[in-house]
Structures are given as C-alpha cells and as structure tokens.
Design a protein that fits this description.
327 residues; alpha/beta; D-Maltodextrin-Binding Protein, domain 2; 9-stranded mixed beta sheet; two-stranded parallel ribbon; 12 helices; 11 strands
C-alpha cells in the first residue's frame, strides 16, 4: 500500500506545474468586448503555466452571467456591471462574486467609408435614431438631420444579450434595454463590421477596441454631447479622449467577475493576479484604455481580500473608479 501511495504521489507531482497545483482548467465566458483582453491575458499566462488550460468563450455579457450564476464557469467577462436580476440569480444559486474592473472602453459609432454626408452626430440625434418610438418611423437619413440625403437608414448593432447594447441604450435612450428593434442584431462583432462596411446607408455601434482592429473597413463618427464642459463640439473616441473624460457619454469601464468559491483555487488566484498586474500593458496592446496604476492596485487588493458584491449597482456613469474601489 505504501508503494502504491508513493506512485500516486509521484503522479500528482508530474501533473502539477511550477506553482504547485495540479494540471487543471480556468474557464471564462461572456462579453465579446472583453474577450480580446481576457484572451491576451490567457495567452501570456499560459506561456508560464503550460499545465493550466484556459478557455475564453464569447456568449455576450448576459449569456456569460447566465452560465456564471449556474456555476458553469469561473470568470464572467462583462462590458457592464451585473444587473440586479443577474445578482439575484447568482444569490439563488449560491454563487458569490468579486467584481473587478480591468480597463476602459469607448463605444464607437460608425458608418461605411462610402458614406460622404455624416461627419458627426449629436447624442440627441443618436437618440432620435435608436429610440423605441422611432421604430418604423425614422427610416431615412434626412429625418435625422434635414441636411442629410433622402436615403434609407439601415441600422446594425449588438444583440440584446450584449453589455454594449445595455450600456448604449442606457446612456443614449435613458434606460438599459430601451431600443427600437428593427435593426440587424448580432453578438458577433464580425457580422456587425460586415453589415456596416458593406452598405453606404448603414450606421452601427460596438466597442472601440474592435473598431481599431477594423478601422480600414469603417468610418468613425465623432459624437457631440452638447456639453462644453466635456469638450467643445463633436469628439471622436480614442485613448486620450476616453481617459480625459471628454468622450461622453459613450466611455465606460469593463469588468471580469470572479466566482468567490473558484477564487479559493490557487490557479484562479494566480490567473487573476497575473491579469491585474499585466492588464495595463495588454489592454493597450489590444486597443483598450488602461486604468490608472492606483485603480489596478485597489482592484488587486479587493480581490485578495475576497470582497464580494457589486460597487456599481446604479451604473458607472459619473463614478470615479478609484473612489469606488477604495470603499
């Protein structure tokens, strides 16, 4: 029996990596917006931890939370804070979570490069385009602005499971999920790129990072919130304008949610700590805007302390991350 026990002990050592835990898996799913940074972190982490298999899926922020609250995954990627109904679902399933902001993202509004009349839009015009009451009524470009041509308005955007959809509708239409439904919707950003780029009359929106990957196929539309305190006139999204707070209201933090139970596992601890220590560099590489060094330090301290729950139950607009994370 002693010999057999020794064999099992040796097998366990072989199956473990340099950090001392058994070869295992870290599972993440959710937002297509957060996917590029989580995938970049997973790739870099995997280089030093080859025995840890990491999977990063894309099912939309809402889809990710559904899986997360059922205990199917360790980490949920989210381009918005968890909703109260999702928090209730997690509570009912006994899933506690640690909320961690990892970067900033701006939402890009785009048209086809063939579009030669749109040089900017106001928030009011975006509301006129996307408001629920506009369905079937605002169907031509000249209805948005009289100087625009009398051409059909074709709309493309994220599906209702997307955190990008939730955030855009909240800040443009005043309520999360409030939107006209007569548009081409997809959780696949590649489909959105194709839908916008291939139609001269199309307009759509998705995360700035994905625009950066496809900017040769799209025309960016600066947005004017008509508040000179945020910058005079129309402002285009960029690292500089997102950090400066002048690209309003379409800039937001993005998150990962970590199961508190999963965080007890050493491979999850190692992965999340690696994530936060490398997020600034890797987020910039894939087109996101890094948080401040202080915000990353506070987020890491929050994770290590196992502080569960959400700091952003009323959304993120107007909230300084450093102040929220200090609580």
């Amino acid at each position: 029996m002693k010999k057999l026990a020794a064999v099992f002990a040796m097998l366990a050592m072989v199956a473990s990596n340099g950090t001392g835990y058994a070869a295992t898996m870290v599972t993440a799913d959710g937002s297509s917006t957060v996917y590029p940074i989580s995938e970049a972190v997973a790739e870099e982490f995997g280089k030093a931890n080859s025995d840890v298999q990491i999977t990063v899926g894309v099912s939309g922020t809402g889809g990710g939370f559904k899986r997360f609250c059922k205990g199917e995954i360790d980490i949920s990627n989210a381009s918005r804070p968890i909703k109260s109904k999702e928090a209730d679902m997690c509570f009912e399933e006994g899933v506690e979570y640690i909320e961690i902001p990892v970067a900033y993202d701006g939402l890009a509004v785009m048209v086809s490069p063939q579009n030669d009349w749109v040089t900017s839009l106001t928030v009011k015009e975006l509301n006129k385009i996307w408001a629920p009451d506009s369905q079937g009524k605002v169907t031509n470009w000249n209805q948005v602005r009289s100087s625009f041509p009398d051409k059909p308005l074709k709309l493309v955007g994220p599906g209702t499971d997307s955190g990008t959809f939730d955030y855009f509708t909240e800040v443009i239409n005043g309520k999360s999920g409030s939107s006209r439904g007569d548009y081409v919707a997809s959780e696949d950003d590649n489909v959105l790129v194709q839908g916008i780029s291939s139609d001269k009359n199309a307009l759509g929106y998705f995360g700035l990072a994905y625009y950066e990957e496809n900017k040769d196929k799209l025309k960016l539309v600066p947005v004017d919130d008509e508040n000179e305190g945020n910058g005079a006139g129309a402002v285009a999204p960029s690292t500089e304008t997102v950090l400066a707070g002048t690209y309003q209201p379409l800039a937001r933090p993005i998150f990962i949610y970590v199961s508190k139970k999963a965080a007890e596992r050493p491979e999850i601890q190692a992965f999340v700590e690696f994530y936060l220590k490398n997020a600034a560099e890797l987020s910039a590489e894939v087109g996101y805007v890094p948080l401040s060094a202080q915000a990353y330090e506070l987020a890491l301290a929050r994770f290590k302390a196992g502080k569960a729950g959400s700091l952003f139950k009323k959304g993120t607009a107007g909230i300084k991350l450093e102040d929220a994370l200090s609580k």
